[in-house]
Amino acid sequence: MKLSYSYLLPIILLIVWSESYAQKEDYHWILGYSGTIPSVDTNFGRAELVFDDKVLKVKKTSEVVNKLNFTNASICDSTGSLLCYSNGLEVYNRYYHIMPNGDDLNPGEFAISSEKVGYTQHGGAIFLPWPEHPQKYYLIHKTTDRVPFIWYSLNLFTTLIDMNLEAGAGDVIYKNKSIYADSLIRGSITACRHANGRDWWIPCFYYRGGKCFVFLLDPSGIRLHHVEDIPFEFSPSGNGQAQFSPDGSKYAFLHFCSQNYRELFYADFDRCNGVFSAMNYYTYPEFGLIGIAFSPNNRFLYFGTGNELFQLDFQDNKPYDNRIKIDSIDGFQSFPGFTSYFHLMQLGPDDKIYICNGRSPSYLSSINSPDLKGKACDVRQHNVSIVANSTMPNFPYFRLGALKGSSCDTIGLVGTTIIEKNNQCKINYNRNIIEIEDPQQKINAAIIYTINGIEMNRYEFNQPSTQETINIEHLINGIYFLELKDKKGIKTIQKLIVQY
């Protein structure tokens, strides 16, 4: 098969689009003080971090005060424009208004006590796109429940948002649907893209440790995939932050608990089957602020303990034992009595790690070169001016694709449907290739369309052949139509569902 040169440019543009134009779902961050009354004081209000071509821009307003405490989740479209966000109590649209049916999340005692400031649960919610359901997003969130002296999450909830509704401002289809009702660790929700490049893994630990409930989000929805035994016990009142490394090969959480110590857990992760291995557990003294993030090159894990910031090097045989103390707080106070600490962290699209400085400080700190070892990572304390802030958005790493070369690295035709059948021709799938068997050598062109009828690629078969080959590795996830034309203009059309 020879590919017409006139169609090389569209294919190149498609490759550039899929690698650089898409996957900007974390380009707009909502921050702010956990209050409810607009103030003339410009230190209080809403701050937004907007990454334009990975360059950080800070927007501030004192006209609207967000109810954003520790629970903070948001998501953008593929261009980086904000779609919606949540404080664990409500779902807000891009215009900062509560969506229809977007109130009364996480009903219960704790929601009532948090209604004026936002849900106070670290990593308590996360947005994920629903695979193969354009413009539909799951908000996955946990409740906070308790018995005397013990805190836990009794429900893992989902709320479904459809951004096609309400003139693109979004609508909540349903909310607070329990997908698992048991005693789970509070907060620490995070997610990792499956090795197929389409689905999502969401691990949730039992509140006392000993096992992990691993959920899978795929085109059918979200469900419990398996339960894995964990050889460690956790504090029954833990609450903290969890992250996957950008390549999905490692997972870590850092908790503070009522037993006056912090818990650090990290492990290797298999993106194909959602299983942990090489698990490690450590405790660090004192109850207090926490934060955790991986470096872009996956080598380093950073964790903050309020007063101190540490780096673990996974090229070291004993990362925790040989941890490096990167920095200590310098005593700076945004306001009298509000010291800037090392708290919640998030890796940004610009490959810097941003650090919330605790409750109310009006600055963020940053790690500007997190891929470098030791103090070369370049910690800058309270260097990003925002407004009074208590929170950090909770994102997965959206730019992770299929795990090439793994047993799950498959892009294929799933549930193919012949719409108009031509018995003279046979279509086969072999990994990233479509093979067209044409015994009578009549096929002279193949065209791939999107589900909306937009032509993506055209292949011209200039020389008669009994078998032609099309490489579809460049196609992103979605539904397409393959149209074959013979010399008389007779068409064969087949529906393709492409998944990584």
Account of the protein in words:
The protein has 500 residues and is mostly beta strands. It has two domains: 5-13 and 405-499, Immunoglobulin-like; 24-385, Methylamine Dehydrogenase, Chain H. The protein has two helices and 39 strands. The strands form ten sheets. Strands 31, 32, 35, 36, 38 and 39 form a six-stranded antiparallel sheet that branches. The longest helix has 14 residues, at 8-21. It is globular. The protein starts with 7 loop residues before the first helix and ends with a strand. Mean pLDDT is 86; it is low at 1-21 and 411-423.
Mean pLDDT: 86
Low-confidence segments? 1-21, 411-423
Strand content: over 45%
Number of helices: 2
Shape: globular
Question: Helix fraction?
Answer: under 10%
Instruction: Using the CA coordinates, give the radius of gyration.
Output: 25 Å
**Integer tally of domains:** 2
Sequence-ordered SSE layout with sheet pairings:
Elements: H1 8-21, E1 28-32, E2 46-52, E3 55-61, E4 73-76, E5 82-86, E6 91-93, H2 109-114, E7 125-129, E8 136-142, E9 145-147, E10 150-162, E11 171-184, E12 186-187, E13 192-193, E14 200-205, E15 209-218, E16 221-233, E17 239-244, E18 250-256, E19 261-270, E20 275-285, E21 291-294, E22 300-304, E23 308-313, E24 324-328, E25 333-335, E26 338-339, E27 345-347, E28 353-356, E29 363-367, E30 379-385, E31 412-413, E32 417-420, E33 426-430, E34 433-437, E35 443-450, E36 455-460, E37 467-471, E38 478-486, E39 491-499
Parallel strand pairs: 12-17
Antiparallel strand pairs: 1-2, 2-3, 4-5, 5-6, 7-8, 8-10, 9-10, 10-11, 13-14, 14-15, 15-16, 17-18, 18-19, 19-20, 21-22, 22-23, 23-24, 25-26, 27-28, 28-29, 29-30, 31-39, 32-39, 33-34, 34-37, 35-36, 35-38, 38-39
